[in-house]
Predict the 3D structure of the following.
Amino acid sequence: MKAIINISILSGLLAFASTAFADGVVIYNNVPNPVPSGMMSEPYQAVQSGEFGGLIQFAGGASAYQLASATVVMDNWAYGSEWSSDFGTTVGDATLTSTGFYVPLTLNLYTVGAEDTVGSLVDSLTVNAFIPWRPESGGCTDPTAFLGADGGCYHGSTSEVTFNLTGVNVSSDQLIYGLSLNTETWGASPLGVDGPYDSLNFALSTTGPSVGGQPLPDTAYWETSTAGWLTTGTVDTFGQDTGWTGYSGAVEFTSATPEPPSLLLLGTGLLGLAFVAFRKAKASGVTF
């Protein structure tokens, strides 16, 4: 009986270790808690942009990370009554429903190059993200705004989109991310038709990250076709642009192995203990 109890305990510990790997641990977080009903945001169509992001540093002090997920906060200014005649159809690359629309969003991950330039592409992932319609206007002094659940008045409503990064490995504690979106006239593949994606923005946090860091807090990485929007950046190039103090993408990253050596040793040690217990129990004639 004693051997069986030990095996049960070890099985539970192994299950716990497995859960630690699967669930992921936050290694960078710039998402407010709680997320407001609406946030400041970077509009892709309005500023002739196709990609926006930043340079971030992961917490934990590891030299390599196995990523688990990334979550971005979007801010949508399109409301359902504006598009009700198109419910059940596809406009551009967006599928419209009575509760919101599905639209492809692409997250690009890059290494950090010399002098913090955009390095090589680590991975690129696209999800068909669901974006709820923003509430109809009402309840605010501004007749075009809506009253959020948090009591604030907003023109855009927030929603979160998660990317599954399982299998994506990075060999540094820093990376540059960029979120890409195609709109009517901008992006990697402009759609050529007006759609709710023209009112979809990347939410901006106005506080520093609660986990991880921003090596260049004054700098955003983005691509725009209009020189007038840039401070130091280059037109039609995804790269550095200064003058962004106080504003940065609302994004969170988790890792499957926040402390790779420790978790690996834990898993190996538990497996070893389980094997020893099994052999002792078997030698004693215990049946499993």
